[in-house]
Specification:
Layout (H helix, E strand, L loop, with lengths): L1 E4 L5 H9 L3 E4 L10 H11 L2 E4 L2 H9 L6 E5 L5 H20 L4 E5 L1
Parallel strand pairs: 1-2, 1-3, 3-4, 4-5
């Protein structure tokens, strides 16, 4: 799988996905850290990436744009990078299963 991690999340999340055997980039890696949401959205869609973000705007875009990229919407409050990665690791198997089954909007909550 290929992932694009949005600006509100740490680059360490992209590195963790690479450790798990996926292609992953953070928007900083691509020069998109300051890009508008629609630019990040289009990049994910055009590159075949699954977008990971905390931004509710992307969840709304996912509803409005059925042709857009799959979205993992992180709905966890402010936390440390270590706690975020641990939470992601704990839900990782279910995320992969949901994506493989065709889910297009997956929420990760506390």
């Amino acid at each position: 799988m290929k992932f694009l991690v949005d600006a509100q999340l740490p680059p360490a999340l992209a590195r963790r996905l690479e450790e798990l055997g996926h292609q992953a980039a953070h928007v900083v890696d691509l020069g998109l850290a300051e890009a508008a949401d629609h630019v990040v959205w289009s990049h994910a869609a055009n590159s075949g990436a699954i977008l990971i973000s905390k931004d509710q705007d992307f969840a709304l875009m996912r509803v409005w744009d059925p042709g857009g990229p799959p979205l993992i919407w992180i709905r966890i409050g402010n936390t440390t990078r270590r706690v975020l990665i641990a939470k992601f690791d704990s839900v990782y198997p279910s995320l992969v299963a949901a994506l493989e089954s065709g889910e297009m909007l997956i929420e990760v909550t506390d």
